Amino acid sequence: MSSSPKRSVLVSGASIAGPALAHWLHRYGFEVTVVEKAPTVRGGGYPIDIRGTAVEVVEHMGLLPRLREAHIDSRKASFVDADGRPVGSVKPEDLTGGVAGRDIEVPRGDLAFALYDSVRDDVEYVFEDSIATLHDHAAGVDVTFRSGTRRTFDLVVGADGIHSNTRSLAFGPEATHHRYLGHCFMGFTMPNDLGLSHEALLWNVPGKSATRYAVRDDDQVFAIMTFAAPEPPTGAFRDPAAQRDLVASAFAGYGWEIPPMVEAMRAADDIFFDAAGQIRMARWSSGRVALVGDAAHAPSFYSGQGSSISLVGAYVLAGELATAPDHRTAFAGYEERTRTFVETNQALAFHGLAAITPGTAEELAQRDEALRGDRDLEINDAGRAANSALDLPSYPVPTAS
CB–CB of 172/306 below 8 Å? Predict the structure, then answer.
């Protein structure tokens, strides 16, 4: 597929999976266009982990030294009870099944910019635009953009996240593929008034958690508040005021540092609210359109593996497109090689739920007993298995420039 003339690929989304795929496709000789609805690559964001097989991918990309330099080096995660009394502390890798000294933790924006910079001069980026319509036919995919521009590509890949527009256009409504995990979450930044450094502090009552995460010695921390809800609050998804009220109501009446967190949440200008969920699909391709990353198989933040799966999936998809005789064979190979890896990591989210937000008093007591007894949490062994659930396929990868 790398013979002349170059095959053209439109990639929708410029977060993690999209630029990673663009990187590999360019190295294999494809003509790549990335479209992103935001005005630029978005920085900031919560720290993310690059673990297991994904470390091999970024090493092959030539990005490992840059990401090692940006490594956060979190030192511990401490748990407190409803009244703020210490329960126990663990090393970060005990919540991920990771390997100290090998795995990488960086701010999401650092990874996004590293991926973007690796290919920004080699592929076409179109910002402040998105796909409006797709017409998949034997000779290609006709695309109409929201700007009114019309173009035809050999292939289209949706890398536009859990709420993928590409998926909706090619595979139908999100509700068909979304699996709600029974929890909602609100993320924001707030002052580091507890003096935290290189650590996370987690508070729990049954079905609720509140976390403050200090990256290095910053005067701000990332905060996240999660709570169980029997149904996703669909009426609040487009209403920030309703989101704030919902979170404030869920955490009303609790002591310790919860009231200051609610107050900070109400004042924050960077809130992010969503339902914790996964994308489950029988197929990740249809005709000449495929999906990668969260658009295909979001595992939820409870797995801690979304970015790693995206990096691995982009590597495999590009490798299959470069070596298979046609796109149908390539898409089938991509799914066959990665589905078990994806499903193993999606299952990890349920161990994450049990560790971070135990649902009942009994489950919370069991989790706390393990912490007090200095025993591994279930997520540790599950994480190790998930991190190594795929031996990275070998493709004839051109040398990184």
Answer: no
Which of 104, 106, 129 is CA-nearest to residue 14?
129
pLDDT, one tens digit per residue, over 255-280 is 999 999 999 999 999 999 999 999 99
User: Does the predicted model carry a pTM greater than 0.85?
Assistant: yes
DSSP β-ladder status, 208-214 and 220-228: antiparallel
Report the amino acid identity of residue 167: R
- Quick check: helix, strand or coil at residue 178? strand
d(CA 220, CA 215): 8
363 three-state secondary structure:
helix
The 3-state DSSP class for residue 262 equals: helix
Q: What are phi and psi of 77, to 5 degrees?
A: -125, 120
**Residues for the chain: how many in total?**
401
- Which residue matches tokens 């920030």? 240
pLDDT in tens, 194-240: 999 999 999 999 999 999 999 878 899 999 999 999 999 988 999 99
Using DSSP, state whether 295 is helix, strand or coil.
helix
